[in-house]
Amino acid sequence: ADSLTRNRNQIIGATLAAAYAETGHFTEARRTAEHALRLAAAEGNEARVRSIRAQLEAYKSNNAYRDERYQ
Fold first, then answer.
1. pLDDT recorded at residue 1
2. Closest C-alpha to 40, from 24, 56, 19
3. Long-range contacts for 40-48 (Cβ within 8 Å, ≥24 apart)?
4. What is the SS3 string spanning 12-40?
């Protein structure tokens, strides 16, 4: 899905980053989340920027991201 959008959809990118983290691929998760963060910031989507930043912090600690709303 990410390649179909030519890596230009921050929601798909953030989802892909979460999948990488879930499987222990934290380097890829960080790289993908950073790209999604840049896309969200370029669009001025502050809510998405905050969400992806939270994900990125988890990945920097080699943890998968869990949205507290769904715990």
1. 56
2. 56
3. 40/10, 43/10, 45/10, 48/10, 48/11, 48/14
4. HHHHHHHHHHHCCCHHHHHHHHHHHHHHH
Q: What sign results for the dihedral spanned by CA atoms 5, 10, 11, 17?
A: positive
Quote the CA–CA distance of 69 and 7 in Å, as a whole number. Answer: 27
Note the pLDDT tens digit of each residue in 27-54. 999 999 999 999 999 999 999 999 999 9
The model scores a pTM over 0.70: yes
Q: Which residue, among 29, 33, 39, 28, has the nearest Cα to 5 in the 3D structure?
A: 39
Cβ count within 10 A of residue 30: 19
The identity of residue 65, as a single letter, is Y
